Amino acid sequence: MIAGKRVCVVMPAYNAEQTLEQTVAEIPRDFVDDVVLVDDGSHDSTVEVARGLGLHVIVHPKNRGYGGNQKTCYTEALRRGADIVVMVHPDYQYTPLLIPALASCIASGLFDAALGSRILGGGARGGGMPLYKYVANRVLTLTQNLLMRQKLSEYHTGYRAFSRRLLTTLPLEENDDDFVFDNEMLVQTLHFGFRIAEVTCPTRYATDSSSINFRRSVKYGFGVLGTALAARLATMGLAQPRFLAPDGRKLGEP
After folding, report:
1. Each residue of 5-62: pLDDT tens digit?
2. Whole-number pLDDT of residue 163
């Protein structure tokens, strides 16, 4: 626990057998009360490795996508009594050693979400981020900040922590089941007035790190721009997208 808050780490997994044990080994158990892994129809031994490590494991019989996996992660964490939920990728792209820092931002009561930013420290390229991904990250983030009137260093990190209040308030079931889910969730967080902290996070890109290919990256980029534009139009009263509707479906709702 941190400041009396129950901390749950969730791990959306897909074919992560090679890096899962290394990732779990760095989770600071003095601070973390629970670890939930959701396997999204892996074709390797991710489930067996996770169970051997003593994790609470949920298995999707069929692949639901990265966003669909997160929906299950957060729903299960809340069901198990989490006050703070930290998402850690099991491919070891983000070090779990920063979990206490991210969770403490939430436990302080000052923030509702915390992001591990690869950009703040200036080491993204040195950590192996491909040039085209770095350029796309910078261009998309600049565009989103202009549309959202915000100053986040990046919208595309997968290292995140959230409060229970945020997770039970946002209409997350309205979000996409693929990679744009991450971006929709951040836009929702800002749109509904929740506060976001950023913590410098080292970057690690390696052959065993998961990554979407160029074609899917382009699709993601257009989805990101569409999400930010929809939020801008909603702020101006010119549109009411379902993922920003106050009465949109919350986690667990049909």
Report:
1. 999 999 999 999 999 999 999 999 999 999 999 999 999 999 999 999 999 999 999 9
2. 98
246: alpha, beta or left? (left if phi > 0; alpha if psi -120 to 50): alpha
**Dist CA 157 CA 116 (whole Å):** 7
| Nearest residue to 217 (alpha-carbon basis) of 148, 123, 145, 131 | 131
Bridge partners for 113 per DSSP:
162, 196
Q: What is the mean pLDDT of the chain?
A: 94
Which tokens go with 212?
């979407």
CB atoms within 10 A of CB 126: 10
- Please tell me the predicted confidence (pLDDT) of residue 210: 59
CA–CA separation, 50 and 55 (whole Å): 6
By three-state DSSP, how is residue 16 classified? coil
Bridge pairing between strands 160-163 and 113-117: antiparallel
Evaluate whether 244 touches 230 at the Cβ level (below 8 Å).
Answer: yes
The model carries a pTM of 0.94
Give the number of other CB atoms < 10 A from CB of residue 212: 14
Domain ranges in the chain? 7-244
CA distance 47 to 38: 9
| Amino acid at position 77, single letter | A
Helix/strand/coil percent split, the chain, to 5? 40, 15, 45
Q: Residues 110, 199: contact at Cβ < 8 Å?
A: no
Give the model's pLDDT for residue 244: 97
Instruction: Please give the CATH architecture assigned to the domain spanning 7-244.
Output: Alpha-Beta Complex (3.90)
Report the alpha-carbon distance of residue 54 to residue 162 in Å, rounded: 24
235 compared with 205, residue with greater pLDDT? 235
